[in-house]
Amino acid sequence: MRVAGKWPLLVGLLVWLALTPGVASAKNWKLTPQSKYGLIAVQIPPPGDLFVPGGQYELQFMAYEPNRGYFRTNSFFGWAEVRVASYGRYERFRLRDAKPGFYAFRSTMVSSWWGTCFNAGTYYFEVKPGVTTYVGAYDPRRNIEEVRDAVRTGRLPNSSRNSQQYFVVDTPRPTLTLPEDDPKGLADLTAWLRAEQPGVEGDPVVADMIPTTFGSRSGGGLYSNGGCGLWVGKGVPDGG
């Protein structure tokens, strides 16, 4: 595995968009068949004895171009993340709204500044308007331990300068129980939506989870010492 860092131009936007952690029904989501956006649903385990530096982690999805292996994002489009606290009331499922298109599991961040980058192996899926898409059950423990180990051994710095983010790159695929491997998960999500999110209409559907990899660039531009992913206009030409 390698480590890298990037200047987070969108940190303020991420904080603004992220779900409020540790609070029951943090947001009353609304979704109808006529909605122009869809919802991503992910299952998370109880925190148990999990120690998360800073008390929270963030699972990030990004708008993805599957035919070219890069992300299509800018300051106002393409980011979709779920922030989870290791304290407070536990919620088994988390939701995130997203514009229609393909999204990939990009990274898991710890305390906003340290993360694991899934460039060496991840999954992408499609979000459709007016539909809740279930992507499976994510277990953060291995990825969080990777970050902690990298800081302990000095491969990542123990503090962030000028709000810089640092990544352990080339990490394995996220620890994910795919929807087809957990049929009960979809039924439980359906029941949870009816009880906790009555404003979400229709039954959720299982995502078609497709394995993929994505590029990672080093030097100059958006990144100071490498980074997690390639962006349109930042090392990858637009169009096509």
Overview of this protein structure:
This protein is α+β, with helices and mostly antiparallel strands. It contains three helices and 16 strands. It has helices spanning 11-17, 141-152, 183-196; strands at 2-6, 38-43, 56-65, 70-71, 79-85, 93-98, 101-110, 114-117, 122-127, 132-138, 165-169, 176-177, 205-206, 210-212, 231-232, 235-236. Strands 1, 3, 4, 5, 7, 8, 9, 11 and 14 form a nine-stranded mixed beta sheet that branches. Strands 2, 6, 10, 12 and 13 form a five-stranded mixed beta sheet that branches. Strands 15-16 form a two-stranded parallel ribbon. A hairpin with a 4-residue loop joins strand 3 (56-65) and strand 4 (70-71).
Cα-atom radius of gyration: 17 Å
Low-pLDDT segments: 6-25, 218-226, 232-240
Main sheet attributes: strand count, strand direction, barrel closure: 9 strands, mixed
Structural class: alpha+beta
Write the H/E string, N to C: EHEEEEEEEEEHEEHEEEE
Measured as a percent range, the helix fraction is: 10-25%
User: Tally of extended strands?
Assistant: 16
Through-space gap between termini: 32 Å
What is the percentage of strand-forming residues? 25-35%
**What general form does the structure show?**
globular
Q: What average pLDDT do the residues reach?
A: 77
The total of helices stands at 3
